[in-house]
Amino acid sequence: MVSALRGRAVVALLLAVAPSAFAEGPRLVVQRVETSRERWPRARIYVLVTNTQGAPVVGLTKDVFRIYENGGTASAEANHVDTLEKSGSGAAVALVVQASGSVLLILEDIKRSIGGFVAAGGEKDQFAIVDYSDAPEVISGFTAEKADVISKLAKLQSLGRGFSLYDGIEAALSLYQESKMAGGSALPSARAILVLADGRDNGSSADAERVISEAIKKRIPIHAIGHSEMGDDKLADLRLLSLRTGGYYAPAPTADDLSKAFNRLREQVGRQYVIDFDSDLPSDGKNHRLDVVVEMGEGATPLRGTITFATPEVSHRFKYIILAFVALLMVGLVLGVYLVRRPKPPPPRECPVCRRIQIAEWDACLFCLKSARAKMLVQKGQSAGKVFPLISGTVQIGSAPENAIRLGDAGVSGQHCLVRIEDVKFEIVDSDSTNGVLVNGRKTSRRLLRNGDVITLGQAELKFETSLTFASDDRE
């Protein structure tokens, strides 16, 4: 209790001896810097710019913003600038409502005004409500379910006699920490506390200066709506509370002014600027200074706001994994191109007689050669030493690739001749070749072959061999 009284005495002293230190005027408040490992070095800054009346300055473009890191003189360029309400990023707003018996007569007006404020929120906005009188009570924790918040708000009562204002604000501040500990990363980065009170505090156990310092440290502005049913002597304290934490004070002299005041506060929250830029700071997880400057026009003093924030610590191992993945991707791409564009292997070659697949190195079908009763032995020419089987049917001889016996020597026609096989007869027939067919030195158009006959085709010479015995039958 002693510390709380000391805190309130400090607030009163600041208001009495140094009002100019917190006088309203054009201001730029950097409320938060949002970063993540996934998006780094892309960062997002939340900035509130107000005029001499404390109203948000609208219509600013990215060209008027200057961003300086770690006190440097080179300005980073803003990639995109928009207001919070247009960006759709959402805000986490905690409402602190005085619920002492002094507001009993306007309680329904309070519920209606707060309900309208919540209902007008954006899709990603989250709201929490804390009331206070003798002690603070959390009516609703942070949630995006507006209907649920409004439903709980309807149960608000004003029966207490105390005024624990700073206990109520402390409870609201703790909601942000509790959401974080419970996995509250889903809370929007833009944050604010809205207080509806008459400024009196006669029962808080929390130290006023500590609560204000905590709000400043967490960069959570405290906006206030001042309304009193019992005199205005403490409203100045409420105004000072807002000014010190970077918030906005909206007086509501009558109950009819409450909705208007909430509308002004909604503008304060929704019309702050969201600035996306690429940081040049190292990703070391350490604190760094960031200054945001707004050029307000020729002759006007630039507005400056400063914040210290920690950059995300990006592991080098993660970078190596990315590089390895890219390297593997490139190797896979090169391999894929090679497989698609490489020369296609020739189709499997089969024996024209037995139709079995042939190995590329075979000049003749070894299957046929093993079972053949007759064969051709090349004695002279490019294929000298090769042996070709004579099985059945017709065996083509020539220089063309489709021949069963292919000879690449000079003077050999593409389809030079053939050997016609019938039972035990092997007859060679000239296929109208250019240089003719010689058997044992004699030119012939057709002839039954005998064991040992020598056939000359151009520069090639073949010998007919067989294990069969039969009568000779030479015909020209």
Jot down its keywords.
476 residues, alpha+beta, 6-stranded mixed beta sheet, 6-stranded antiparallel beta sheet, disordered N terminus, disordered C terminus
The average pLDDT is 87
What structural class is derived from the secondary structure elements?
alpha+beta
Helix amount: 25-40%
Q: Which descriptor suits the 3D outline? A: rod-shaped
Q: What's the alpha carbon Rg, rounded to whole Å?
A: 48 Å
Please tally the helical runs, counting DSSP H or I stretches of 4 or more residues: 10
Low-confidence stretches: 1-23, 471-476
Amino- and carboxy-terminal Cα gap: 137 Å
Strand order of the largest sheet: 7-6-5-8-9-10
Q: How is the main sheet built? A: 6 strands, mixed
E-strand count: 26
* Strand-residue proportion: 25-35%
Question: Topology of this protein?
Answer:
Elements: H1 2-17, E1 27-34, E2 42-50, E3 65-69, E4 78-83, H2 84-87, E5 91-98, H3 107-119, E6 126-132, E7 136-143, H4 146-153, H5 165-181, E8 190-197, H6 208-217, E9 222-226, H7 235-244, E10 249-251, H8 258-270, E11 273-278, E12 287-294, E13 303-310, H9 316-341, E14 349-350, E15 357-358, H10 366-371, E16 374-380, E17 387-390, E18 393-398, E19 405-406, E20 417-422, E21 425-430, E22 437-439, E23 442-444, E24 446-448, E25 454-457, E26 460-466
Parallel strand pairs: 5-6, 5-8, 8-9, 9-10, 18-19
Antiparallel strand pairs: 1-2, 2-11, 3-12, 4-11, 6-7, 12-13, 14-15, 16-17, 16-26, 18-20, 20-21, 21-24, 22-23, 22-25, 25-26
